[in-house]
Design brief:
Radius of gyration: 21 Å
Number of helices: 14
CATH class of the largest domain: Alpha Beta
Distance between the termini: 11 Å
Oligomer: single chain
Strand order of the largest sheet: 2-1-3-4-5-6
Number of domains: 2
Length: 342
């Protein structure tokens, strides 16, 4: 059985990757927040008791005795973990690539000692030109790259990819939209505090005078709910009449957008012209292409929202959910990973 080590910096995708790769038949371990899948460090997503903890991996990390054992383990994968990976092991890193590059010669030597070993960079919307330029020499030395959006190719100096595989959401888990609550929502971590990277002013202007609430950590600062439990987040997505997506930069789109789409809540997106804090402009943004509708003008977005608030837009809900299933559905993404890793 092929063994996979996840060195991921995004707890939600870490949870997804553990679950998916386990279901695909791999023996998978993480040196991130899900090092013990049944007891994750981050409450944003549920525990994964169905994914076995790998004692050899956890013991090697615990033995480091540093202030941050997980960070230390990602920056210098313990020999015992490399031994556990065996002759066909796969290592997957996220965007804190200095942790990989700082040990590259060692890890490349490990990879080159067996034809079955692989090292993969899984980009998740955090890359910019500096990252691409830094990655280029390692890409030439066989660092694989799985992109998450076709828009990443528009980053100046793009170092290329070996596969394009989207994030995934389970249609059986995110479903049941009713739109019973006549309100516009948005779920973003620190929507106001991270402006302009979250385009908070667009949210403020487009929802002025409407029944609206920002949800998620930090939202209480602007009259929102604050952080929600996983179940409460599901309930909010099912009940709210509409969703206003403002994006985050430099990401082409976020998991929050996908989860809203899969639930079936009608979505109005900010237009691409607002994706300009980074110098790449609208060429990197994909969220408006995925949503139900979009506008560069908050006043026009407000009109779209008023129409959606008037009554549950069932046809719009059906269409946006089907789009999510086609692009981000678990079955499609699982098939893509299976084909790439075989």
């Amino acid at each position: 059985m092929t063994r996979i080590l996840l060195c991921l910096s995004h707890s939600i995708e870490e949870s997804q990757q553990l679950q998916l790769l386990h279901e695909l038949g791999y023996q998978v371990a993480s040196i991130g927040g899900y090092i013990d899948p049944a007891h994750p460090h981050d409450p944003k997503r549920p525990p994964l008791p169905q994914v076995p903890m790998v004692p050899a991996v956890k013991d090697a990390v615990d033995a480091l005795g540093t202030d941050d054992n997980l960070g230390a383990a990602q920056a210098h994968i313990p020999d015992a973990i490399l031994d556990w990976l065996d002759d066909d092991g796969i290592i997957i890193y996220h965007h804190y690539l200095d942790r990989l590059y700082g040990q590259w010669d060692r890890i490349r030597a490990w990879r080159d000692a067996s034809s079955g070993r692989r090292i993969i960079w899984r980009s998740v919307g955090q890359s910019v030109t500096n990252n691409e330029q830094q990655a280029a020499p390692f890409r030439r030395q066989g660092l694989e790259r799985v992109a998450y959006s076709p828009k990443e190719a528009n980053i100046p100096g793009y170092s290329g990819h070996d596969a394009l595989i989207r994030f995934w959401v389970d249609p059986a888990e995110y479903t049941g939209w009713t739109g019973d609550t006549q309100i516009v929502i948005n779920i973003t971590q620190h929507l106001a505090q991270r402006h302009p990277y979250t385009n908070y002013e667009f949210w403020r202007d487009a929802t002025k005078g409407l029944s609206a609430m920002a949800l998620g950590p930090g939202s209480e600062a602007v009259g929102g709910s604050g952080e929600l439990s996983y179940d409460d987040m599901h309930t909010a997505l099912r009940m709210a009449r509409a969703y206003l997506y403002t994006g985050t930069q430099p990401a082409s789109y976020t998991l929050g957008l996908i989860e809203a789409m899969m639930t079936g809540i009608p979505i109005v997106s900010i237009g691409p012209s607002h994706h300009n804090v980074f110098p790449y402009g609208p060429s990197l943004f994909e969220g408006h292409e995925l949503a139900s509708s979009f506008s560069d003008d908050p006043a026009v977005a407000a009109l779209h929202l008023r129409q959606l608030l008037a009554e549950p837009a069932v046809d719009v809900s059906i269409a946006i959910r089907q789009r999510a299933i086609d692009i981000f559905g678990k079955a499609a993404v699982a098939a893509a990973w299976k084909a790439y890793l075989r």
